[in-house]
Give the backbone structure.
Amino acid sequence: MKTNPRILLVDDDPINLDVMSAILQEEPYHLTQVTSGTQALEVLRNSARGFDVIVLDRMMTDTDGLKVMAELKAHEALQWIPVIMATAAGSPQEICEGIEAGVFFYLVKPFDAHTLVRMVRAALAERMKWVAIQRSLSAPLHSVQFLQQGQFHIRTMEEAYALAIFLGQGCQEPDKVAFGLNELLCNAVEHGNLGIDFEEKTRLQAENRWEEELAHRMTLQENLLKTVRVQLERIPEALTFLIVDEGPGFDWTQYEGLHPERLLESHGRGIAMAKAMSFQKMKFLGKGNQVWCQASSKSADRIHSDNPAYVAHTQA
């Protein structure tokens, strides 16, 4: 049975909590309010159902929002919940500190109802990606362990997801790597091969036509033979990935972090998230249509320990 997304609102000002609740109660969400970071952590640790998104005030009387983030990231079950940080000023320094703490969604006070709803929806979309990736990884494929090198070609967003899951399973942290690869591969398909830039995606999403336009561009004559090429190389204790699209490239420096002018947009943070969370190293090459990244590979012992058949054989 489908259940409504659960949103935790954390602010030491009860008026702010009531305002956010009044806005979000029009959406199909289950809302919980707490007035301190300490309360938030207690509720999160003791919740049987869990939460899908947290809206967290940056400055509270009992603790700093970033300290709450540190507690979340240290907890295996809580580290995957997207957090929207409510802050009085979205300065570059605050954004940088937030990214380092794992925050990629922001609300700059005072914010309007439309902005709050849009950011919660965007954070929920990221949550759904994480949940889907973790479910896909629950039945691991071990054939990737035998690859010393390989080359793959994809065309669609669905193929991007499938390849990200497959390649991520050869890595020490498969969920994080699969998430990052999916972001980079989708970026290569959508922005590289299909030529949808940031401003155009913003407009298409506002018009509810983004998926329709993706499908349309896939059918255009000039795009029919375009692919994204992925090259895998195994090096000692790591896997490297080179992703190359057939687009004109772009200024990737604008997207490796979150810029204040794009802070309240519902998209445009995938590259920053991949760089911060998924890989040991990541860099764009040439004109921006190539990106290289490296992740720790899964050891042979770890691969075998994940394989029930192997474990049963060794215990027989």
Observations:
- The radius of gyration is 21 Å.
- Residues 161 and 204 are 22 Å apart (CA to CA).
- The mean pLDDT is 88.
- The first strand starts at residue 6 and ends at 10.
